[in-house]
Structure formats: structure tokens, C-alpha cells
Amino acid sequence: MSDAKSLRVAYGEALVELGTKNSKVVVLDADLAHATMTSMFADRYPDRFFNYGIAEQNLMSAAAGFAHSGLIPFASTFALFGAGRAYEIIRNAIAYNNTNVKIACSHSGISVGEDGGSHQSIEDIGLMRLIPNMTVLVPCDPIEMKKAIAAAATINGPVYIRVARPVVSNITTEDTQFEIGKVVTLREGTDVALISTGLMTERALHAALMLEKEGISAKVVNVHSLKPFDVTTIRQIAKSVKGIVTAEEHSVIGGLASAVSESLVGTLPQGFGFEKVAITDTFGKSGKPEDLFSYFHLTAEDIANKARSIARRK
Amino acid sequence: MDIASQTVKARELRADVLTMLYKSQSGHPGGSLSCVEILMALYYNVANINPQDPHWEDRDRIVLSKGHAAPILYAILADLHYFPKSDLSSFRQIDSHLQGHPDMVKTLGVDVNTGSLGQGAAIAGGMANAAKYLKKDYQVFAILGDGELQEGLIWEASMAASHYKLDNLTFLLDHNGLQIDGTNEQVMSLGDIIAKYEAFGFSCFKVDGHDIQAIVEALNAPTEGKPKFICCETVKGKGVSFMENQAGWHGKAPNKEQYVQAMKELGVEVNV
User: Fold this and answer.
1) Distance (Å, rounded) from C-alpha A274 to C-alpha B181?
2) How near does any CA of chain B get to the CA of A147, in Å?
3) What is the ipTM for the molecules in this complex?
């Protein structure tokens, strides 16, 4: 598709657009501007871009300082070095006093590919979800990325935005609803619900098409807000189907599967199906992204298999 | 208030610190007593602040990076009427706005949350860089502990301060030589601090950290194009004979007898 682009490029474009509209927006990076694509903002607004070098703790601390001075800083680095290495800075210097810093971290999940396990953040959603005051957004396509960046700037408080590296096609449209804290149903279905986030939503839609051919009706629900989490709608959806499959490019611990479990515990009828497509409690590894999706069982076929096991019950 | 009369004020503030710690039976006396004059040089002499307008956007920022010295910060903020002095007796209690470490959300006059070491200095660097970008004249002052210099973040922030030529940023080091587990030398030697900060591109000054006049002069010295580092030589537990130079008084409250004795040394008779 002609509109296919990397989510990080979509992030760079969204920053430039936001920067044009809002003069308070400044951007900070840690020597990865050409990988996170904040370089696009730096090229357009060089005096509003601050490179803090390979020093992620200081990147986040300095961003807090900019926010305390009335600006809206977007701080970017790789997810593992932002959410991971600088975790405690984000917790104490940013979230603890509800500081207006936007943390947009690229190279999340195993879709980083060849760089391997040391660079593949499979825990960032969990880490960020744990912090009070934090909003956690995981866009699924370029259009949603643009909406997420615009929405983040309207919140007076910390926001974490997960930015994936691969090129993806738009699966939502400009008209698709985007409200922080609300899930979006992209496809109706009555047998199972595929509840997915980020890059897995495209795969969930593929899975739904496969299932349709087999006579299984799958609803596809995209979760761009991991926090605040749409507990009400998730409970309503669970009541309308035989079971659900969660799908995320993240550890099965702490991310979407956890958020859905926390929402539904104690509310499910006997025999309700609950399956999870996620990275089991293990580290990533080198390889081509698509090979890694297969290796870690994160494909449309994997989602469909879990859905089939639910649909065949009784 | 002229500087000569500030020695009386310093004694009163030290007494306030001890009373807070005695009442809450927790807190950090040693490092609070060592930076009394450093904070006084800022709050009573140099910093451009307005207690009637705590959020004035052009105010100078004061960041207590060694946030465990919160008691002396609170004593000064109360003395300047940011909040009633009677609040001090609630320090560290469940219903108090005076947290164990400074909290800007809860306490009027606190410019940023600190307590996790290294972060205050680094946030101060961001504030100073933002001031440059916004073409604002305000200064940013951060008070650092010497043990705090062992945090890697301090050196990340120091490198950036020099890179961005933040001559509106001053680090004041409370160099009392002691930390929880012993002396700096025993735990992790700081080496030649002045040489290190000179190598990092700061304008460096060394003063008696209990001489307000000397600290004020260093604060007012020009430093065009460079951030400033003022090494304030201090005594941990300053003003209370049995607390002075004792690492054991880093994070321990005085008991009744110790409190009475300490207050007596500060010229206050108390009956408890």
C-alpha cells in the first residue's frame, strides 16, 4: 500500500506537525535522532531540538526540567534505554510530580530484529503501566501514531508512547475514533474477540479473515491505550463472545494480557475461553523481524489457532 | 537582613531542624545542619524569589538535589512565610504536606521533587537549558551532597551543562566528607573534585561553607559561558558538638536527652 510507512517515520512527521501548531513543543534525544526519527523535527526546528548524548538518565531528567519551565518536551530514545535504563528517573523525576513530559520510545518489541535481545524491549508496557500518573499509548499504524502524538500533547502529565520500527500499512482511517482510555472495535464478530495492540492488530485482522473462511466470526478490538485501560468496554465485549484472544508484541507478563486479565478476573462465566498471544517469559534474539514473529508465535496464524481452540469448545 | 545578623538566624534554623527531627523521630540531621549557610546564602541573599508569588515564572529556581536535607529547606520556607511555621511540627507525619523528601506537589516553595540522588542536579540542568531557550534571565541553583557525586547521572548532567554553556546554572556542593557508610574516602573516593569540575568545563570556586558572605561572593562572581561549581567546605552536623563529623548522625533522630543538649548548645532551653 502506498500509505505504508515505518511507525517511527510517522512519529517524526507527527512531531513536525505538532511542532508547527504548538510552539511549546521541544524535542530531546539521546544520540539516536536518526533512528527514532526525531531528526525530522531537528531539521525543521533546530533551535527546539536538544541532543543530550548517550545519557538516557540525563535525557529524562533534562526533559523534566524543560517541562518545569512551561514547555512540552518529547524525549526519545530506544524503548529499552528509556523505559528500561531510565526507569527510576521516569518514575521519580517525571511521574512522581506529574511532570508534563512525553516519552516516545522507538525500537520496542522483537520487531527491532537483527540487533537482538539486548535491544528488544519486551517489558516497556509493563514497566510504564506500573507507574502512577502515567498514560501509556501503543499506536498500531501511522494514522494512529499521528493521533496519539496530538492527544499526548493535550494531556497535562506524563505520557509514554511506544513506537515500533517496522513499515506498516494503515489499518485505521482518519475517521476511526481515537480517545485515550477507549478501545476501538475495528471489526464486528460474535464467536471470539481478538483483542490486540500495536503491530499485532494488523495480524489480528488477518486472523479474523482466515477465521471467517472457516465460519468463525471474530471481533477485532484495537487497544491503543494500555493505561488508562477501558475496563468497561472490555467487560462488555467479553459478555458478547465465547472467548477472547489477546495479542501483543510484548511479554505475557505486565502488558495487554495482564491488563485484560485484571479487567475480567471474577467476571467470566464457566468455560469462557481466554488465550494469550505474547512473548513467553523469555528474551528476544537476532533475526529478521518476520522470522522473529514466527519464532515467538506472534503471527496471524498463531492468533487464529488460539481462536479456533476457543470456537471449537462445547 | 545584613549578613552579620544572619548567624543568629542560622542558629534559630538549626534549632527548628532539631525540633522537627525530635518530634518526628526520623529524618537526617547531619546533612541538614551542614548546608544551613548554603541555603541561607541563596534564600536570604542571592536568589530572586517572591514568597508571596511562589510560582512566579521568572523566579530563580533552587533545587535541593540532596533532598534528604529537607528539614532545613522546610525551616527556611516557613521562616519566609511560604507556609505557617506551625506546620513544621507535622514533618513526616501522615497528614502533613512536609514529606520526608521535598515534594513540589504538596509543599509551596519547593521547585522540584528530589530525594533520589543525582536527579535534582540533572533536572536543574534541564531548567537552565529551558531558560536559555526561552531567553529568560532566571538562575538555577542546585545543592548537591558529596556522596551524591558518586551517582553517574551527576556526571551526565555536568557534561551537558558545559556542552550547553549553562552560565545560568550553579552547583553548590555541600562537602562535609561523610556519607552513610563512612567517609567519602572510605566508601568511594571523590578524588580532586575541583580538578574534576574544571575538567568538565565549570568555573570553580572553593569556600568555607559556613561563611555566608564567602558563599554569596562566589555566587555573585561572573562566569560567562560556563556553568558554575562552588565547593562549600562544611562540617556534617554543624552546630551540635556531638553530631559534628559523625557519619552515624546521617539519618538518625535525637532522643530526649540528646535533643535537650543539642538545643542548649544552640542557645535554646527546652522542657520536654
Assistant:
1) 51
2) 27
3) 0.95
